[in-house]
Every structure is written in C-alpha cells, then in structure tokens.
C-alpha cells in the first residue's frame, strides 16, 4: 500500500526557469495539500485541492505559482520564473475526503534549489 | 488566522529520560491537533493526534495533553531512545477547513 509519492525528490533550476513538482496521493485519497518548508522552519500551507477543484489557495503567492489536481494523474505544483527565494522543500499531503479523518499523510518532499 | 507557537526549539535529553514539547494556539475554533516527527531528508510522519473533545491521549511511550481553556497542548515522550531523535512539529486545524497551521519545530536529541 504505497504512501504519498512525490517526484522529483531533488530539483535544481536556474533563475527564470520553470519548476514542476508532482504529487501522487495515497490510493483512495481525493484531497491534496501543498506545503512549503524553508530551512529550520515549520511547514506553511500553500493550497488545498480536490480532483479538478481548487478549494483553498490562500497560502499561495499570487504570481508565478499555480496548482492543479486533474481528474487523471498526479497533482502538479508549478512555479514559473523561479527566483532564489523559491528554494525550499515542498511537501504534498493527502487524505481520503471530507467527513473522514482529518489526518493528512505527507510525502517525502521535493527539495528545490534555485541557482 | 491561527498562530501556533512551539517551545523549546531544541531539546537534549539523556536516553531513558522524558521529553516534553509544548505548543500554544490562538484560534479557539481549532479542534484538531496532530503531532508529526520529521527525520532528516524525509517528510513529516504522524505520531499522535488529539481532538478537542478529549483532554489526553496515549499511545505506548507517547502521550498528548490538551488544555482548551488555556489553548495549549503538549507532547510527552517517556523512556526516550536514540531513535526518537528528530524534529517534532505540532499543528492545529479546524475540522472541515483542513489546512494545518504548524509550529516552528523542536529538534530533539536523545543522547545514548
């Protein structure tokens, strides 16, 4: 029973390039969350998605960042025109659905380095 | 929005001793409080959680207590072992709103 999967685990980009981070939730989970973690800090909420819907994007920067969770395939966090400040670990979490447990299960993260 | 504060930022204990990590939250509507353990280079792993209708929960060497009036909750680890060494995060959320507000983390070092 595979857990939450994220790829790539490490991603290096130069300033101005695009970064695409992928998250496959646990089997049977239809809710996905993205969090960002800066070094030596806690995780900060970015966005909450269900299949084909963005439920809450209040933690997402207004520009350059976007997220999707299509009907088929993984959830994607996309960062356009990356800057050095985007360097961080990005974690995806999933849970089954509303009305079920609140527990979120986290993936291993993608560590983004912007040169 | 919710603000979660966590103390201490680092904690060093001798193997076999107990460790206590404390968190406070600001939003009285928060009603779900998970604790996560994060090892170096890995994602957070849930170790225990508590809901606001319960004051205490225990799972083997790990326990969590919640004081709704004072808006604080604590993680207690007894008989610590070197493999307990990691960064521990508390979090708070409101049921059905779902996003977690995390504390800043506590780096626990258990010395053999």
Largest β-sheet summary of chain A? 7 strands, mixed
Tell the overall outline of chain B. globular
Q: Quick one: how many beta strands of chain B?
A: 11
**Biggest sheet statistics of chain B:** 6 strands, mixed
What structural category do the secondary elements of chain A indicate?
mainly beta
Give Rg of chain B in angstroms.
13 Å
The residue ranges of chain B in which pLDDT falls below 50 over 5 or more consecutive positions are none
Ends apart, CA distance between termini of chain A:
37 Å
Explain this structure.
The complex is a heterodimer of chains A (115) and B (112). Chain A has strands spanning 5-7, 10-13, 19-24, 31-37, 43-50, 53-56, 65-68, 75-79, 88-95, 105-106, 110-114. In chain A, a hairpin with a 6-residue loop joins strand 7 (65-68) and strand 8. Chain A is 0% helix and 49% strand. By secondary structure, chain A is mainly beta. The mean pLDDT of chain A is 92. In chain A, the strands form two sheets. In chain A, strands 2, 4, 5, 6, 9, 10 and 11 form a seven-stranded mixed β-sheet that branches. Chain B is globular, with a radius of gyration of 13 Å. In chain B, strands 2, 4, 5, 9, 10 and 11 form a six-stranded mixed β-sheet that branches. Chain B has a five-stranded antiparallel β-sheet with strand order 1-3-8-7-6, with no helix packed on it. By secondary structure, chain B is mostly beta strands. In chain B, 34% of the residues are buried. In chain B, strand 6 and strand 7 (62-67) form a beta hairpin. Chain B contains no helices and eleven strands. Chain B has strands at residues 4-7, 10-14, 19-25, 32-38, 45-51, 56-59, 62-67, 72-77, 86-92, 101-102, 106-111. The interface between A and B is medium-sized, with 27 and 25 residues.
């Amino acid at each position: 029973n595979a857990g939450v999967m994220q790829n790539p685990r490490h991603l290096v980009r130069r300033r101005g390039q695009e970064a695409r981070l992928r998250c496959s939730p646990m089997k049977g989970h239809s809710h996905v969350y993205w969090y960002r973690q800066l070094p030596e800090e806690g995780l900060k909420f970015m966005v909450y998605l269900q299949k084909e819907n963005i439920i809450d994007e209040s933690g997402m920067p207004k520009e350059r960042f976007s997220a999707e969770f299509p009907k088929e395939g993984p959830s994607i966090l996309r960062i356009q025109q990356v800057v050095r400040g985007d360097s961080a670990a990005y974690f995806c979490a999933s849970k089954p659905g509303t009305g079920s447990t609140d527990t979120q299960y986290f993936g291993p993260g993608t560590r983004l380095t912007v040169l | 929005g919710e603000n979660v504060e966590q103390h201490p930022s680092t904690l060093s204990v001798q193997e076999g001793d107990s460790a206590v990590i404390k968190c406070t939250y600001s939003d009285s509507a928060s009603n779900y409080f998970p604790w996560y353990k994060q090892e170096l280079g890995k994602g957070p792993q849930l170790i225990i959680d508590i809901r606001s209708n319960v004051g205490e929960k225990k799972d083997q060497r790990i326990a969590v207590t919640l004081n709704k009036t004072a808006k604080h909750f604590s993680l207690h680890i007894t008989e610590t072992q070197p493999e307990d060494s990691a960064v521990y995060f508390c979090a708070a959320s409101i049921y059905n709103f779902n996003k977690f507000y995390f504390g800043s983390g506590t780096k626990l070092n258990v010395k053999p």
